[in-house]
Write a structure and sequence with these properties.
The chain is of the alpha/beta class. Helices cover about 50% and strands about 20% of the residues. α1 links the parallel β1 and β2. The radius of gyration is 17 Å and the shape is globular.
Length: about 150
């Protein structure tokens, strides 16, 4: 049924549940997995003030280096979990994108037939104010999405 599964993870404990669930499903189906970690763009507000450009440029470099390092750590951990279960996998880190946008692009580009991601479970005003990457993915894709709570 599903042969190419995209598992999105931000490295959080909740996302780890999505990874575990997605890996069990992939193992049972004999599917391959692409793990995706996304680092958002450096906050634009950091560029304010007369001398901020100089300071922010250093912060931008630091932010990007740390995001890459964190992404590698998250994806290496996921790869190790997949290897332990005998699931073929690869990891991708996308920089400077909104998570939902990157998830949709990578899922289409990889030919994924299922997206697995965790929901952070926000409700009410929190969901309206903060938005929901999961809700955005679900509403904009034609690919089935498995949401793990």
């Amino acid at each position: 049924m599903y042969k190419k599964i995209l598992i999105a993870t931000d490295g959080s404990e909740l996302a780890g549940k999505g990874v575990a669930h997605g890996l069990e499903l992939a193992k049972g189906l004999g599917a391959t997995v692409t793990f995706l970690n996304v680092s958002e763009a450096f906050p634009a507000l950091a560029w304010g003030g007369a001398m901020a450009g100089y300071v922010a440029a250093d912060e931008l470099t630091n932010y990007e280096e740390n995001a890459r390092k964190y992404g590698r750590e998250v994806l290496d951990k996921c790869k190790a979990e997949a290897d332990a279960k005998g699931v073929a996998s690869k990891g991708l880190h996308v920089e400077n994108k909104a998570p939902a946008e990157a998830i949709l692009e990578v899922a289409a580009g990889e030919g994924s037939d299922l997206i697995v991601m965790a929901s952070h479970g926000r409700r009410g005003i929190g969901r309206l104010v903060l938005g929901s990457q999961t809700a955005e993915v679900v509403s904009l894709t034609q690919i089935p999405v498995l949401v793990v709570r």
